[in-house]
Amino acid sequence: MVLHILVPYASAQPLFEVERESFCKGVQGREPMDPFSGVAEIKKGEGVFLWMEIRAGERVLTMLEAKGQMSIYHAWASEKGVTDMIDIGITKEGWLEQASAIKNQFRKQGFFAWRTQSFKKNFKEGRWYVSVLDANKKPVRKSGSGTEAFRPEIVIRFIP
Question: 0.85 cut: is pTM over it?
Fold first, then answer.
């Protein structure tokens, strides 16, 4: 007799979800400063941040405890394709500094929040988007968005 046990396929679920995000001119106190709303009017050579807060649960905590780090990627792209793949995840140093606070928040709330950002410059004018990818380079979704991959967009326009 063969016994078949159905186990949910864990990797079908994203490791985390994005709670909040903002394209902005800067980040201060782990919060976005001077956010853009759909269009970033910048001088040629200036840069833009994509700031975000993620919400992660037990799978991420287990990964952090085992590996001491977790990659999260921002893949910046235009209509010509991906130009920058930036790891904005939890580094070994970040985990060592924040492990106690992260574990405490998880115990109290059943999840923990992590704020991070990437910075990009050397833009060409036009529409840009950022694919947010987990440690397995799988698309992440925005909290409450169902199964749709999260891919925020911004239009870059140069000003004199």
Answer: yes
